[in-house]
Amino acid sequence: MDLIINKITKLFGKQKALEQVSFSVSHGELLGFLGPNGAGKSTLMKIITGYLPADGGEVFLDDERISTDKTSFRKNIGYLPEHNPLYTDLYVKEFLEITAGFYHLKNKKQHVARMVELIGLGDEQHKKIGALSKGYRQRVGLAQALIHDPKVLILDEPTTGLDPNQLEDIRSLIRNISREKTVILSSHIMQEVEAVCNRVVIINKGKIVADGSISEVKSGKLRRNQTVIAAFDKPVEKEKLFSLGTVKSALFDGENWEIESDGNEDIRPQIFRFAVENNLTLLALSLKQQNLENIFHQLTRGSDA
Ligand code: ADP
Ligand code: MG
Q1: Residue 37 beta carbon below 6 angstroms from any ligand 1 atom
Q2: Which of 46, 68, 96, 265 is most deeply buried (CB count within 10 A of its CB)?
């Protein structure tokens, strides 16, 4: 199922938590929704799942519009909220049966057994939720999100607070689940998205600042500024490079120039012409590959987080 988010705006008082947020997710995609704390991730996820009304824009799940006063779309959406609120006094199986009842599923026990198997809750299924480790609580959260076999899964920071072993388990579980579902996973940790997802949408202060495959975002195509590495056969005066107009900064390390552009256009052709016009031979000319962490910081620079 395709999820279409179209110009969503959300206000809390005078604060714009989301401003004209648009992107769509195709069937089978595993999308990372990345942004610093307070960027608006949870707010958007609550709107997508129909728990919070938007002040502008709309969300469609295929042809159906999501709204807080309908429930028909719920059979298609599974949701693991942030901080995974669970009833710690309930037994794992009991909780999952209640969840199955919420969706009016027939053969509740069968659905619970299927989840216990799929999510790997076998050894813990007879325990109280309160007695489980954080990793197993997250599994119970995933099981409740999946019990009605929804086509779209919305996971709000599903790996936050897990230790490294639990983290790897939950990551591979999510990757497996995503083979058959459309999944959006939010995180404020770039490595998390890089480890699990193939596409990333980056949000900062309520606005989308990047959207593309991990490799596209890394190659710099979607960034506001591009950095080009260039080397010339003769010394070049820095001021001359700035005469190109679109150059924001230029650093020379004794061998290579690192030239940052002011916009997101590729300035390699300009550098090439610059070399020709100034009788220089280009010894190197390439776009700088950055790791996602640097890009994330660059895109969200100036945020409070
Ligand atoms: P994230 O999940 O990316 O950390 P949130 O969506 O939780 O961000 O929050 C986005 C912004 O909206 C934050 O500034 C937050 O303080 C504000 N916010 C979220 N929920 C509420 C609310 N119920 N009332 C007022 N402000 C809120
Ligand atoms: Mg959040």
Answers
A1: yes
A2: 96
Nearest ligand for residue 303 CA: 1
The CATH number fitting domain 227-289, selected from 3.40.50, 3.10.50, 1.10.3470, 3.30.70 = 3.30.70
Contact status, residue 283 vs residue 231, Cβ threshold 8 Å? yes
pLDDT tens-digit map of 88-144: 999 999 999 999 999 999 999 999 999 999 999 999 999 999 999 989 999 999 999
Q: Which residue, by CA, sits nearest to atom 7 of ligand 1? A: 42
Tell me the pLDDT tens digit for each residue of 50-91: 999 999 999 999 989 999 998 889 999 999 999 888 899 999
Q: Confirm or reject: Cβ of 51 under 6 Å from ligand 1.
A: no
Nearest CA to ligand 1 atom 10: 40
> How close is the Cα of 79 to the center of ligand 2, in Å?
13
pTM recorded for the entire structure: 0.80
Judge whether 191 and 163 are in contact, CB under 8 Å: no
